[in-house]
Known about the structure:
The protein is α/β, with parallel strands linked by helices. Helix content is 29%, strand content 18%. The protein is globular and about 80 Å long.
Amino acid sequence: MRKITVCLLFFALLFHAWGQDANRFFPEDRLLIPGAFYYPEHWPEHQWERDFEKMAEMGFEFVHMAEFAWAFLEPSEGVYDFDWLDRAIDLAAKNGLKVMLCTPTATIPVWMGIKYPDTYLMNNQYRRAEHGSRQNNSLVSGKYIELSEKIIREMAKRYGDHPHVWGWQLDNEPYAKDDYSPAAQEAFRQWLKNKYQTIEALNHAWGTAFWSITYSSFDEVRIHNTGAIDWWGNNPHAVLDFRRFTAWVQANDLDRQALILREYINPDQFITTNYVAVPGNADPRLTENLDFISYTSYPNNGTPNLGEYGFRLGNHTALMLANDYFRPINGVTGVLEIQPGQVNWASSNPMLMPGTVHMWLYHSFGAGSRLASSYRFRQKIYGVEQYHDGMLRTDGVTPSQGGEEYITFIEELKMLEGMDVDTEMPEDYAAKTTAILWSHDNMWDHNRQPQNDRWNIWNHTLKYHQILKSIDAPVDYVSESCDWSRYPTLIVPAYQSVDSVLVEKLTNYAKRGGTLVVTCRTAKKNRFGHFWEAGWSAPIYDLIGAEIEGYDMLPGYKHATVEMNGKEFKWNRWGELLKPFKDEYAVAKYSDQFYAGKSAVVQREIGQGTVTYIGVDTETGELEKQLIKGLFKNRGLPVSNLPEGVFSYWRDGFRVAVNYSSEVYEMPLPENAKIVIGEKKLPSPGVLVWIE
Ligand code: GAL
């Protein structure tokens, strides 16, 4: 049996917030642990054993249970019933399955809402949520906090030392939902008091002199309700603070749950939760007490996506992004819910091309997942998620198409695990490792003030991510506090709010030999979200070697051009007019409009490293791609040219490629490549695994 000594080069260096390497929860000789979600309370008990047998027979190794089961675990206040769960765990164990338990807090039982109506959150019309759905609870309601603590404590006492319980998931897909209830208003005031200390400081930070919003005490502050008047009429600084507060409330709830569990569980049981892959209002980096962060992925939501069959293959960037975003947080990630086939909630829910689930699983594996669990094992025959596929069809015994593909994946995985391969990451691959600086705070700020309807911070960032993947570079999303010295290249996309500490850190990074790429809209604001009382982005002039004189954009139907090395590129969304300190810094210039001849991109050496400022956001990203490729080539690194939708990864000695392009792609393999799975002519959907 091969021994995995290196997961990814830097992972060994990363220790999660709880203090230990989260890789320890996964056997050293295993690449990935497959599992499935199961809800015993949905099925007659006499079927449970048959279901667990089938799960084990299909190759699944863990089962996930108790999510959304609060009403069954505490049928009335203070009356707990764990017997059914004991029996389900015993049967799972009898079939060799490990158990991942979930805290049931995403669905409060009906008795709770009737007895304590303020356990529900309030929407922006100040209407209380009601019973009948999920995630309708207020995370700051005193009663919710008290009662959720009790149920978690009971579960932790009972299963914290259970030999078959492998780990815990908290709640479900933390959303950080907006809550306008009186409890939330009070918690927001308290949060503001802690942050600003004095009302004068809040008035300054929010710029309340504008439109007479000014406050004389914290007691007067209410959440600025973007649903009550035109969204643009709301103070951007107050809205940003509400986003920060809401994310903090969510993270706080998860940390609180984790700390209750930690009082009882043995250290071999992990704690994770399953964030939605697309960054939203919850910030996964804010929790401090989880062992690692996992994610959920439903790549096919019926949108056109790439190529002829994109509507069946799903969004090619979904798993690329999820892994590279979640994995670096604690050095380990996994997909806790992966789409099994057709779902019930998208605008259109077409059949998947055969092979799609198989490809998604390989994408997730190649990009680093250490577990992959399918949502859900059995297709439900009633309830909200009718029409949502499972690993088994509606008869409860026949594997679905996705189920069959999962079986194949699991069998192949066993074969890979049996191979003896070199687990040292190749040097030239490691040297391409690139960090992308990301913060939710920055995203929320952009979302409130995009300045045109075509600007989207997330798409702007994804464009750079895709460029990096097209040249086969490993990518990690990093935060400001991270040690960037491990990364030879750092991309800072449209990082709008900065302070002097960050600018100094960026400068030092470049001076010490880093390849730094900073893009348009960076450093426009301070941390309150105010502009500088100075030139546009004044704090970075010395870093980039240029001044920024202004910015332009065009209406959706118009394009302007920028020229680099004799080639013209179209742009429309954002272009900054740069005035380089030295003429030789200019590498691209606008070639039309009244400012033709002004610089759009500047590049300079600084200390041992380089800084490139890309002040323009081009339509296809081709200009940006040529710039990034040039930086890698200058350092003598091999640069691939993978088409959009084709991804390649190195994972523990294996090279893994997947193809969402809707077309066959002949993978350029080195002479010494030995194909283990698939063919050099990679179909779409398709998977290729080889060793070098
Ligand atoms: C996820 C959610 C699951 C299930 C699934 C259906 O977002 O976490 O509980 O509802 O969607 O696709």
